[in-house]
Design brief:
The protein is of the alpha+beta class and about 500 residues long. The protein has 3 domains: about 150 residues, DNA Methylphosphotriester Repair Domain (3-Layer(aba) Sandwich); about 210 residues, Endonuclease III, domain 1, CATH 1.10.340.30; about 70 residues, no CATH class. The protein has 23 helices and 9 strands. It has a 5-stranded antiparallel beta sheet, covered by helices on one side. The protein has a 4-stranded mixed beta sheet with strand order 3-1-2-4. α4 crosses α5. It is globular, with a radius of gyration of 23 Å.
Amino acid sequence: MSDPLRQPADAPPELPDSEGCYRALQARDARFDGHFFTAVTSTGVYCRPVCKVRTPRQANCRFFALAAQAEAAGFRPCLRCRPELAPASSAGRVWSTQDASGILAAQAAQWLSRPVYNDPAPSMAAVAARLGVSERHLRRIFHTALGVSPLHFQRTHQLLCAKQLLTDTALPMADVAHLSGFASVRTFNAALQAHYRLTPGQVRASGGPPAATALSLRLYYRPPYDVAQVLAFLAQRAIPGMEVVDAAQRSVQRTLRLVHGTTVVTGWLTCRFDANVPCVHVRLAPQLAQCLPQVLGRVRAWLDLDADPQAIATALAPTWADAAGVRIPGAVDGFELAVRAVLGQQITVAAAHTLAQRLVAACGEPLSSPHVGLTRLFPAPTQLLATPDDALGALGIVRQRQKALRALAQACADGDLQLHPGAPVPATLADLQALPGIGPWTANYIAMRALCWPDAFVATDVSLHKALGLRQHPQAAEVAEAIAEHWRPWRSYGVVCAWQSISNS
């Protein structure tokens, strides 16, 4: 029986620059990993540009921007280079149009492919409602922009997620099916057989024996990556008991709290940058297995693993010649980042770090962990709301900050404020600035790190003015904005370059 998901109305679009793609394939250039996939007609398999198998003849190659497009054309993923490990595709190369339809398709794709905070298998109706359009209209513009149906796009990501879990973990088949977004093991088995002509057991056997205790997985990124910059940024702000950064080991560890359905799940994670391969080795506490795809998505956002360093460096080169490899340290928890941003208003990083450390020590829940230095969790919104004003005042948090923190915690606890990648940026900025004590600087800083918005800009930032030589300028904010116009749509990265230049001076 034919699979309706494998029969799109039109052939998926191939990338026009086949010559350039083939040269990147010949060089196995990791800078293009995730930007395109090579489908080989002689084998029926599609690969990442970094695949180590013998380079196929150019006449046998077809190039697609998305894994879903390659699968819609009838190709199955390579078991050696494992397309599920590729960094997320650079959105600008797939849907670079500025029209509303292209932006809408990009937002829908983000929700369908990133089970970071939402249901791992959101329905098209739910996505359409979130975007404020009809389901029929969303399906139409999605297929026009990407060349595949939303259902096929979502199913591809579910299968690739399942493939990674089967290969890298010892999770039971039922857990893999559920975490990947399948309604049942039977549906999962049927989809795997129809698309890949493999059973779950065959996929698991292709990866060798997985770790039996802590969950261990790999997350790839596109080089260059300034590991030292990211670790230094995180180390300067690391809260004792909650975060540990080891520059010598190229690693960062931290505790984590997740809300999984109606259950609160807590645990720890460690991330170590490989010195030879552009990937991060991630180990998770076993109790986080029940929300594994969401945790991995948060780690990708936290360490900015899906950035496009070439595009960023090109845009920033006129101002920052050393922008290659710059990354924006994000957040694993948007509420936590927002609280730390409020605490840091109009004071130094060191002073803000001290306040955050006191808050975690006084209000953070204890956590049992096998890692030295990981003993506490960041307070949840409800815990912060339950802390008396006098107790917050004793920590050195002034009344104005207390009011802002309580309003922020209440909005997050009620679900009125969503602070995660994929949240609507303009609406979230407006909602943040409607809260008492939160202005444009804080709202944009939160958007930069919690929403992973690449074009956020803190126009009034003193360190930014100093880096641009505008410290004494009477209209420093306006001049900074004019300079940053050339950085669009990567102004957030320009700000990080400015901060880095100050810390290195």
